[in-house]
Amino acid sequence: MTNLSRIIIVVSMNLKSKYNFLGNNLAVDFTNTEHIAHGDVVETLQNLNDFYQWTSEAGLEAEAFSKTDSINEVIELRTSLKELFVSAADDNSLPDKALKTVNHYLLNRSETQQIKKIDNKMFLEPKYKRLSLKRLLGVIAHEAAQLLVSPQLHQLKHCSNTKCILLFLDTSKSKKRRWCSMDTCGNRAKAASHYLNSKKS
Ligand SMILES: [Zn+2]
User: Fold this and answer.
1) What is the CA(64)–ligand 1 centre distance, in A?
2) How many CA atoms lie within 13 A of 73 on its CB side?
3) 45: domain range?
4) Average pLDDT over residues 125-137
5) 113 C-alpha to ligand 1 centroid (Å)
């Protein structure tokens, strides 16, 4: 192997994110930060640095977190959202305690906007471009709340791989999306059914 190809492999490994953005919704993607690999649950939000990385990949701009911020709040909101989304995907009633937690984080949302003038044209833009941890959790809670009160909630599905815990909004026209990703669960299912069929024949 040449040095150049070795460098390319190292760079492409670093570029591969540990986060999935396949849920078609920010709050759903947030709950997908916990996934299954080789049969074990993988926690990708071990600390606030991980969350900072996730927010940046999700297109949110975080300000430096303060010393009093804790990953526990992030996990508390995610746990409640996951409970709500799983209940919705299973057509069960939404648990009150989890709703209460989301309502608590919704209080952190700041909608403050300011008028900006560029070339004599007016634009509204958020006052806070970089968000504190509280405001970030408020933004995620708000995305979740909008989904929970919308008819789109019926599009929330589990990946059809029973060993996968990822969720997604099926925004496909046919509403027949089955897999979190064709590259992983979809292809694995195809390969398994191909193997079974070849054994039968
Ligand atoms: Zn899957």
Assistant:
1) 33
2) 19
3) 24-200
4) 87
5) 38
Residue 48 located in a structural domain: yes
Q: Is residue 110, in this structure, part of any structural domain at all?
A: yes
* 140 vs 170: CA distance, rounded Å: 19
If one counts the domains in the chain, the total is: 1
CA of 182 to the centre of ligand 1 (A): 8
pLDDT, position 136: 94
pLDDT exceeds cutoff 70 at 84: yes
Return the structure tokens found at 32. Answer: 């997908």
Residue 154 lies in a domain: yes
20 C-alpha to ligand 1 centroid (Å): 11
**Residue-level pLDDT at 80:** 98
Residue 137's domain is classified under what CATH number?
1.10.3300.10
Average pLDDT over residues 180-191: 86
pLDDT at position 129 is 78
Which residues, 6 or more positions from 115, have their beta carbon under 8 angstroms from its beta carbon? Answer: 122, 123, 124
